[in-house]
Protein: Elongation of fatty acids protein
Organism: [Candida] subhashii
Amino acid sequence: MLIKFGFPQSGVWTLPTLDTPVPESPFENEFLTQMFNLTMKVSTPLTIAIVYFTTVHYLNPIIRQRQLRKYREKNPEAKDKKLTEKELKKLPAAPYAIATTSIFKALVLLHNVFLCVYSVWTFVGMTSSIFSTMDLFKGDILPSFYEALNLENYTVKKRDIFFHTICDSNKGIFSSIITKEGRPNLELFGYWFYISKFYEVLDTIVILLKGRPSSLLQSYHHAGAMMCMWAGIRFQSPPIWIFVVFNSFIHSLMYFYFSLSCLRIRVPIIFKRILTSLQITQFIVGGSFAVLHSFVYIIDTSMGPSDSLTLVNCVSTPDQALPVILNVAYLAPLTALFAAFYIESYLKRNKQ
């Protein structure tokens, strides 16, 4: 067996020391390297996430009052009526003047098209990187270990190759070997995906300018994603590939739908329902699969086949375990918020 399953090694789930050196920048450009080092500081995503979250929930009551005022102007008979929370949520949007201009609508369309194309690029690029690295392990790296273990006739299991590809810090998808061969690795794809989480804040700005409050689901989603992606790339935790691959796939569909909406192309409700179901599924499956990585042991390829072969844990340090804990802690309430959204948007609406 080239991998085995077992309990995580002792000490992995202890308090992290957070003294892991910052990973080497994947860029040669000096400006991009400086940006990489700056955004690897915990203060960067934490400050942006806190400012974003608090600003949104400071502005929400202002937007709600604007909606209420516009509603009462159009419905004088409701001037003194006190609306329930449910009625407040159903108030018509009260867009600001800029949101009604053609330029704004064109920019929103470009924003959605850009994120759709970028998400497709990330998904295709990351999955291609995984498959090409699996070929590298199958053809050049693992065969020498078969011989050392007298496994010449061993039937290669894709499971063995896959987990070595994901977990091997020396030659896997986080290593510079892939980059030297001209293929971007997980650090590069993951870093740009992390940066995209800051850019996606524009989604919230668009909603506010269109005269609707931003939901807790959206603000929690964006703020938490910044911290989870930072932790995964900062500590090069193998399971972060799940976030990049799963989320980029869902975002490809989501921003495609948003682009169609901008073009006033009506999308069947079943598509939106499936999309929400896929989002919930990615949280449950992705979170569970991330935890599974900590129970996987692979051959330590840094030792060489002629040395005494040892097994190393896929998640081998408390710092690498921290992103797993953060992601699971983040996904639990996020799944509940999406489930509540699904019930409110589809099940209750169907009954009505």
